[in-house]
Specification:
ten-stranded antiparallel β-sheet; alpha+beta; 282 residues; Glucose Permease (Domain IIA); three-stranded antiparallel β-sheet
Length: 282
């Protein structure tokens, strides 16, 4: 009897250990799959998870935003500073009619940009020039939908940490830059407008910390300010040097050199006319 009892004890112990091992294996397998599933869900949340915690997102963002391409990320130029996009380089003769973060209950939340106006108010600044706040790559140039009018978005690389951010210029009446074009600080982007008559003329100016082109997104956030940055803080933290952007001067020289490579005009000219290549006046 004693031997039989010992055999039964060891059999039960062996079976118990085997069962515990199977349970541990199952927990490990299902736990790993659970972690993988959680990682997949996190990946599906999109790039906004890195920009703003989901709990602080004001609302579901509109579909259609596109990630900046690898080429755009590489081509985004390093800025030498930022200047006001309207008025003088320092923003003289302008004012901010609705500063960043202002609560506008009528619009449904906090303002995600700055509404810049000429000091005349009303529509006196309609048609005024809008300039690139910093050297940048055009990643959007087009009509962004109702309430937006024509919009231009530039990508920039910040000095120091080399982060890529974007500046958005909304409610334009016209645009004079194209997708993929490189522009210098202070270069003309377009003219101030009314978003197809939706508002009095002004420039809606945004600074965006994102890896997407976000033209047409809501300009008011129910909570927080999404992934927008304070435009005035950007201008203060990265002030433009008191000289024109060297990139613009170099580009003009290259254009002049390219034009000089073109053959002289061969059209017959009136007798007594001295033929002079027009590019010599560039």
């Amino acid at each position: 009897m004693g031997r039989r009892w010992q055999l039964s004890f060891w059999r039960c112990l062996s079976l118990g250990l085997l069962f515990a091992g199977l349970v541990a294996l199952l927990l490990w397998l299902f736990g790993g799959r659970g972690a993988a599933a959680e990682a997949a869900v996190a990946a599906q949340r999109g790039v906004y998870g890195a920009d703003e915690p989901l709990a602080e997102m004001p609302q579901r963002l509109l579909p259609g935003v596109m990630l900046l391409t690898a080429e755009q990320m590489v081509k985004a130029p390093l800025v030498d500073g930022f200047q006001s996009p309207i008025g003088t380089r320092s923003g003289a003769l302008t004012y901010d009619a609705q500063p960043f973060g202002t609560l506008n209950k009528a619009r449904g939340g906090h303002h995600t940009g700055a509404d810049l106006n000429g000091i005349g108010g009303q529509n006196s600044d309609e048609g005024d020039p809008v300039y690139a706040a910093g050297r940048g790559l055009v990643v959007f140039s087009g009509h962004a939908g109702p309430g937006w009018g024509e919009v231009v978005v530039l990508a920039h690389r910040l000095p120091g940490d080399a982060r890529v951010i974007q500046t958005l210029y909304g409610h334009l009446a016209s645009r004079c830059v194209r997708l993929g074009q490189m522009v210098g600080r202070g270069d003309l982007l377009g003219t101030m407008g009314t978003a197809d008559g939706a508002y009095l003329a002004h420039l809606h100016f945004e600074v965006i910390a994102s890896r997407c082109t976000e033209a047409g997104q809501p300009a008011y956030a129910k909570q927080g300010v999404m992934n927008r940055l304070d435009p005035q803080e950007l201008l203060t933290h990265y002030p433009a040097p008191p000289v024109p952007d060297p990139y613009t001067a170099v580009r003009r020289l290259r254009l002049r050199e390219a034009a000089l490579q073109q053959p002289e005009p061969t059209a017959e000219l009136p007798q007594g006319t001295i033929p002079v290549h027009p590019t010599r006046f560039f």
